[in-house]
Amino acid sequence: MAENDHLAAVQHWIDLHNEGDLTAFGRCYTEDCEAAFMSAGSESYHGREAVRAWEAQLQKLLPGKAARLLSVIGEGERVSVQAVLHGTHPETGPYEVHWCSILTFTGGMISHEHVYLDPSQLPVPLPA
């Protein structure tokens, strides 16, 4: 992928995340993708449907959440993303959590994702 392709693919992924369209968001991942949430007890998810289901749980826990990109650095098929997840939880109020994802693209879709964040900064526990 060219550097501009990295930025466009990641921006599209973030836009779909923020729109809440889980079907379109899921299409950003390969059918056999691997995702690991390294700072959430190293939870791993295998396959597009598992990633989409995890994101659906997160939407229920954090209604109205959104992500804002801070930086995107790409080299070859690997991309590092730094972003902020933010919103207002109905019970605990506003929150802002910095996170990082290391993405690997295959055929223009995410085939591997490692997410790093401090779950204690979220207003509710992450889904298991």
From TrEMBL:
Matches recorded under Pfam families: SnoaL_2 (PF12680)
InterPro entries registered for this protein in UniProt: NTF2-like_dom_sf, SnoaL-like
SUPFAM superfamilies in UniProt: NTF2-like (SSF54427)
Source organism superkingdom: Bacteria
Domain SnoaL-like residue range list: 10-111
Protein name in UniProt: SnoaL-like domain-containing protein
